[in-house]
Structure formats: C-alpha cells, structure tokens
Design goal:
This protein is α+β, with helices and mostly antiparallel strands. The chain contains one helix and seven strands. The longest helix has 43 residues, at 2-44.
Length: 148
Amino acid sequence: MLIGLMLAAAGQVASTSAQRERETELLFIGHQYRDAIARFQQQTHRYPATLAELLASEIGGPQPAHFLRRLYPDPMTRAANWILIPGPGETIMGVASASTAEPLKKAGFDDDTGFEDAKTYSDWVFLATSPRRRLQPPQGVHGIATAR
C-alpha cells in the first residue's frame, strides 16, 4: 500500500510539472501571436482576417512579410482551437486558449494585465492593440496581454 501511495504522489508531481510546462509554453505562444498581430497591424494598418495571414503577407513589395513562423496549437488543449478575439470588422485582434482548466500560475506575469485574476486559461487573453489608439477588449475578457 505504501508503494501505491508513493506512486500516486509521484504521478501528481509529474502531472503538475507537465501543466506548469504547458503554461510556460502557452505564455510564449500567446505572446508570439500577440506580437505578430501587432506587427501585422502596424505594417498594414489593419488586423488580420485569419491567423494564416500572419504566415506570409505581401505588404508593400514583392518580398512576403512573415509575422509568424508557423501556426501554433494551443498547448493546453493540444489542438488548433484558439478562441479568436474579434477586432474591427471581420478581423482578429488576439487569441486565448480554449482550455477551461484552472491555471496553476497566479502571479509573476510581466506584460500580462489581469492574468492574476484568471479563473481559467481562456481568461488569459493575448490582445494586440494599435499603438495609436487602444481598443477596448470585448466584454467578459479578464486577463489581457497587450502588445506595446
């Protein structure tokens, strides 16, 4: 019985460690999307209509501009099922995880406003805003990582 308890405890530690790694990956990937959308908006003066537009876009010349190396899956759900934060018109201003799991990380966020109060990973919103005017996020959005 003691060995069973020790194995269960080790499994819990491994699970928590894996979740923390996925959280770190979510923050990195969320910032990649946020920054790519912000750069796209700065160069085109509009937000992208799809995430695929961030991969290659012909802007002001024959050389395509690459704002993102590849489309990343949501590390929390392990799928390409991001919640897309709508922008003006039919555009995308940001992304959020589709996961409804509760985050382990509750403090120590650098550029991410409101993430401390997040109840789920979907509350971690990675929002790119125009440097000339700050757009308000949609209602119900809690934590926001904005591009500067």
